[in-house]
Amino acid sequence: MTDLSGALQEPWPDLRLQREAVGLGMWFFLASEVLFFAALFCSYAIYRSFNAEAFRIAAAHTKIVYGSINMVLLLTSSLTMTVALRAATIQLRRLTLLSLGATAALGVAFLVTKGLEYYADINENLVPGPGFPLKPAATAIFWGLYWIMTGVHALHLTAGIGVVIAVMTLFWRGTIPVQGSTMEGVAIYWHFVDTVWIFLYPLIYLAGRS
Amino acid sequence: MSEMTLQYAPTEESVATSYLDEGHTVLSWLLTTDHKRIAILYALSITAFFFIGGVAIGLVRLELISPTGWFMTSDEYNRAFTIHGIIMVWFFLVPSIPATMGNFVLPMMIGAPDVAFPRLNLLSWYLYLIGASFTVYVLLSGGVDTGWTFYPPFSSTYSHSSVVPAAIGVFVVGFSSIATGVNFMATVHLLRAPGMTWFRLPLFAWSMYVVSMVMVLATPVLAMSLLLICAERLFGLPIFDASVGGDPVLFQHLFWFYSHPAVYIMILPAMGVVSEVFACFARRRVFGYAFMVYALLTIGVVGFMVWGHHMFVAGQSPLANLIFSFLSFIVAVPSAIKVFNWTATLYRGQIGFEAPMLYALGFLGLFTIGGLTGLFLASVPIDIAATDSYFVVAHFHTIMVGGTVSAFMAGIHYWWPKVTGRRYHEFAAQLAAIAMFLGFNLTFIPQFIMGWLGMPRRYHFYPDVFQIWHVLSSGGAAMLAVAYLMPLGYLGWSLFNGDRAGDNPWGATGLEWQTPSPPPKRNFLRPPQVTSAPYQYHDIGRAREEVEQAPVEGRGDAR
């Protein structure tokens, strides 16, 4: 076993307790995040119940191919993240770094796909405002929510990628020895961002396609 | 969470270096991860904002002396009361007790060397500063005129003031309270000293735990509602735009889903502080400890289900009004339990009228008035008549300012010897406490009266019949200003000239008093062991009377 004391932070006496604390703290933070997204999902539900037909029309213009590719990318990234966590826990340095790299790459691929999708949306003028092509008026609410929901999700993913790269760098340079305590919070967060997408996907891409 | 033994760095007695002597450079403060130093940083920043917010409302009260105004335009008037609201709610009241006393005392109370995530703790202060600088920018760029509530469509479409910077400031500072909340919850779960079971936690620790829960679950909804306003204002995404089928009332739901619990974010810590103070200065065990805990939890939970009472006249369905009204009455039950239990704690106590106790007694009276007038407003027919009147203004100021600020001052005075190692001037503090109570009532009782008579809130001009009440209220505000400034003077003086306090000047129980004043970096000289329930004052009696001769080694929970 390598010396793991470099990974221990104040005020914890050992890594086991520190890992428990990081996990617990992250879960509390995610409770907060759930409420953050809940405000959006709640708005979506209310407006969809008010304007069912408009939401059906509006959602039919979403790009399901991009959305589905992204679904595959993100679910796969959760797999690589799980591998990274398990590998770090048993201190397999190279496998940890490889899986973290794969996770970050899949995340970036998601953002690129999302960018292509945004480009296509903008070309069709699907931004509420002058020249917005859809009728009735309430379709603009769907597209307003679309931009905010996917935008906020993409920001969360970007933050996740940043943290994954940061942890990789710390492990790479040996600033922190490879072990699970550091990874615990990162992994839980990554899966959360992934889970949000699992909820966004049907609301955005499937709502107009029944 | 599992029972465990914490290993403390100083395992045996060591020479104490106080946390204040762990470095004297500015950087040693700005980069500190010591919860005690972060508490001081927070205290300085929120005090600055308290006085900025105070100047804003001082100008408003001056202006309202005349029924037709005399030195402000209506636009300036709107901006003055808005910035007062934004600063006082988010930059003073919400962080007030948790970020200062919570940060300083909570880890010590539970026998921990620090909070669970010290660097996150420092980050939360920097988030506060970033949010605060947006607010300062708003001030310099001419202010914002939406009222602190940011209601659309005015905020999203029509206002020509700095709505977006103001919203961003509040958004960012919200994450500072989420960070504090996450930190405190993990701390209470995992860092309690051996023997410190959940039902041996002092009530202040409980109040910090419950308030953290509310912060973590409510604040994100505010963040999202402000994000939606910004999206609509900046990018024209029509979420609340009624012309395409959006619903401005939805914003009110989201906003009050946070902002009603926010009132509990302000008052729960206050309840925690006065529970400590009443027990200590009446030399009594807190009456009905278990019920005090349940009451805190009930208020925290039911507080999430009453937000609709802010929207009785906003077009909610009558059924929703009925339900929200009923739940609002329900939340009064645990509040009443607390008031009765505090009163019962005082009964047959050996009451000392030191400044913390005077402030706490002021809290008790004002919280009761604020709570009872809240019941008026929880009733739909009365609220429909009183909506947006000064009665509402007076009600929530009595809770948020009368209650929370009184308790804040009680806590500052109570823990001052622990934080600084010095005694403050007792008589000056007693005077300030009394002036604050009188000034507060002189400010807000006239507001209750004129509100009941029909004076609407936020109006710049008003009929002559209300002038007498406005003048009285402004006089009270001047008195309050003096009462708020006094502590700056005598507390500042005590920093340099106050008598040395000793470890436990009040003869109080609780782990935070079982360590030197000011405490060492890791709080304790030896690992604390807890062997009994809190508030064992019956054994000690009125030990403070002998303090003058021989400093009492505090006999509390730790033996």
UniProtKB/TrEMBL annotation, chain A:
One of its GO terms (cellular component) is plasma membrane. Gene3D superfamilies: Cytochrome c oxidase, subunit III, four-helix bundle (1.20.120.80). Residues 19-209 form the Heme-copper oxidase subunit III family profile domain. GO terms for molecular function: cytochrome-c oxidase activity. Keywords: Membrane, Transmembrane, Transmembrane helix. It comes from the Bacteria. One of its GO terms (biological process) is aerobic electron transport chain. It is a multi-pass membrane protein. SUPFAM superfamilies: Cytochrome c oxidase subunit III-like. It is found in: Cell membrane; Membrane. The chain crosses the membrane at residues 21-47, 67-88, 95-112, 155-176, 188-208. PANTHER family: CYTOCHROME C OXIDASE SUBUNIT III (PTHR11403), NITRIC OXIDE REDUCTASE SUBUNIT E (PTHR11403:SF6). Belongs to the cytochrome c oxidase subunit 3 family. This is Heme-copper oxidase subunit III family profile domain-containing protein. It comes from Bradyrhizobium macuxiense.
Automatic annotation (TrEMBL), chain B:
It is found in: Membrane. The keyword Coiled coil does not apply. One of its GO terms (biological process) is electron transport coupled proton transport. Keywords: Electron transport, Heme, Iron, Membrane, Metal-binding, Respiratory chain, Transmembrane, Transmembrane helix, Transport. It comes from the Bacteria. InterPro entries: Cyt_c_oxase-like_su1_dom, Cyt_c_oxase-like_su1_sf, Cyt_C_Oxase_1, Cyt_c_Oxase_su1_BS. Residues 507-559 are annotated as: Disordered. It is a multi-pass membrane protein. Gene3D superfamilies: Cytochrome c oxidase-like, subunit I domain. The keyword Iron applies. PANTHER family: CYTOCHROME C OXIDASE SUBUNIT 1 (PTHR10422:SF18). Belongs to the heme-copper respiratory oxidase family. This is Cytochrome C oxidase subunit I. It comes from Bradyrhizobium macuxiense.
